[in-house]
Amino acid sequence: MDTQTTTHAAPGTPLPPIISVDDHTVEPADVWQHRLPKKYLDTGPRVVRAPLKEMTFLGGRFKPVMGEPGDDGPIGDWWVYEDLHRPLTRLDTAVGYSRDEIKLEVITYEQMRPGSYDVPSRLADMDVNHVQSALCFPTFPRFCGQTFTEAADRELGLLCVRAYNDWMVEEWCGPQARGRLIPLPLIPLWDPELAAAEVRRNAARGVRAVAFSEIPPHLGLPSIHTDDWDPFLQACAETRTVIAMHIGSSSRMPSTSADAPPAVGSTITFANCCYSMVDWLMSGKFERFPDLKVMYAEGQIGWIPYILERADVVWEENRAWGGVADKVHRPPSELFTEHVYGCFFDDAFGLKNLDSIGVGNVLYETDYPHSDSTWPKSREVGEAQMGHLPPDVVERIVRGNAIELLGLTPEGLWEGPK
User: Fold this and answer.
1) How far is Cα 303 from Cα 244, in angstroms, rounded to an integer?
2) By the 8 A CB rule, do 256 and 249 touch?
3) What is the pLDDT of residues 336-356, one digit of tens each?
4) At residue 181, what are phi and psi to the nearest 5 degrees?
5) Cα–Cα distance measured from residue 98 to residue 5, given in angstroms and rounded to the nearest whole number
6) How wide is the angle at C-alpha 135 spanned by C-alphas 127 and 266, nearest 5°?
7) From CA 409, how far away is CA 417, in angstroms rounded?
8) What is the pLDDT of residue 12?
9) How far apart are CA 161 and CA 141, in angstroms?
10) With contact defined as beta carbons under 8 Å apart, do 51 and 75 qualify?
């Protein structure tokens, strides 16, 4: 089995059991078929096995084309929903494969590691990786439910969002998870009032996080600078629900041209988080909603110190014409300290500059089961990169900050409904 890591320094400070704030679940095929009204079973999300006709991933855009039965081409499992055809790919679940085997190809459920979709198998893989607890982003709905936002039938879309959340809370994070899986629900992004209601519905079940888009206008939605999102933000602030934004949750990965290879986008994935964080810091929302917290999954942290420095300079020196003097009354770096969390799984440079970011603003992740994941060597990677830090600082990064932010027990577990 490939370790999916390359080089490691000698271990430094021993890592406590990890609380990963960015892992992923591949939804079982029956999630929606078991929960939607009968009239929607033929149009709601379902899995079919079919050949691949064509698939590209260029310029940050993923474009698969499903073939017809009997066509030539590799066979894979596809999610079908309205007129959407989305295949399962090796990039969705790559752990356990060598780097040379991880390619853009379609796969079936039988070809993926069971821990991708099966709770007992996931817990076993977490044990192998020194992970105690994990917050998991979706796969088919995409990182903040864009799949349902782009659908034509809004009534069905809302039912799909709620069905996913019920599965997430009651099954994926249900009794068999023993508190080790932390729920991350979706919202109906097209309606902030409905989104606020869904936040409160899940908060009543003990949920303390919700997925959101890093750059909503890329999805055809209002920007964070408008008042449109205020009902949703108010609900999050009132319930202490952290807004979790994953790279790619705007359905547009950073790239430079339509023909740029995936390696370009993979190198600059932090860019969307960077743009998004500046949006939030200059929006005035943190001053209007002082209990609001946001986190950036898989964005890494090494870029943060310069952006905070630059944001403070712009806020101070361009106050006469910068357009934020009337709503941002404190330096952006101060707002960052109180409201923003950066998440990383492999960022030695960022950890060397931790004093410029803040010990309380950093969270650890493993990205299981994606191709970037440090599984099953997340402990070794963490010890190599955090070996220069005092044990109490390592404890905060690997566990303490997540426990506080996500409302976990002192032991690092999700309690479920109070």
Assistant:
1) 19
2) no
3) 999 999 999 999 999 999 999
4) -110, 135
5) 10
6) 95
7) 13
8) 57
9) 9
10) yes
What is the distance of C-alpha 381 from the center of its chain?
20
Beta bridge partners of 19: 133
Question: Can you tell me the distance from the alpha carbon of 11 to that of 99, in angstroms, rounded to the nearest whole number?
Answer: 24
Residues 139-178 have pLDDT tens digits of 999 999 999 999 999 999 999 999 999 999 999 999 999 9
CB of 125 closer than 8 Å to CB of 106:
no
Q: pTM higher than 0.85, yes or no?
A: yes
Tokens of 377: 């060597």
18-40+112-406: which CATH number, 2.120.10.10, 3.40.50.2300, 3.20.20.140, 3.30.460.10? 3.20.20.140
> Look-up: residue for tokens 């295949």?
87
Task: List, for residues 99-146, the tens digit of each pLDDT value.
Answer: 888 888 999 999 999 999 999 999 999 999 999 999 999 999 999 999
| Mean pLDDT value across residues 306-318 | 96
| CA distances for 70 relative to 54, 74, 343, angstroms | 15, 11, 45
What are phi and psi for residue 399, nearest 5 degrees? Answer: -140, -55
From the list 360, 323, 322, 353, the residue with the least C-alpha distance to 339 is: 360
- What tokens appear for 96 in the block? 């356990």
Query: In one letter, which amino acid is 358?
Result: G
Among 131, 136, 87, smallest CA distance to 112 is for 87
- 396 contacts: CB under 8 Å, gap ≥ 6: 359, 360, 362
First-to-last C-alpha distance (Å) of the chain: 41
CA 227 to mean position of chain CA atoms: 24
pLDDT at 251: 77
**Residue 270 CA: distances (Å) to CA of 98, 227, 228, 277, 298:** 25, 26, 26, 11, 8
Read off φ and ψ for residue 134, nearest 5 degrees: -150, 135
Tell me how many degrees the CA angle 30-125-361 measures, rounded to the nearest 5: 95
Q: 297 and 137 in contact (C-beta within 8 Å)?
A: yes
What residues does each domain of the chain span? 18-40+112-406
Contact 354, 375 (CB under 8 A): no
**Angle at the Cα of 214 from the Cα atoms of 370 and 397, rounded to 5 degrees:** 60
The H or E element containing residue 186 is none
With contact defined as beta carbons under 8 Å apart, do 245 and 214 qualify? Answer: yes
Six-digit token pair at 31? Answer: 């999630």
Q: Phi and psi of 244, rounded to 5°?
A: -105, 120
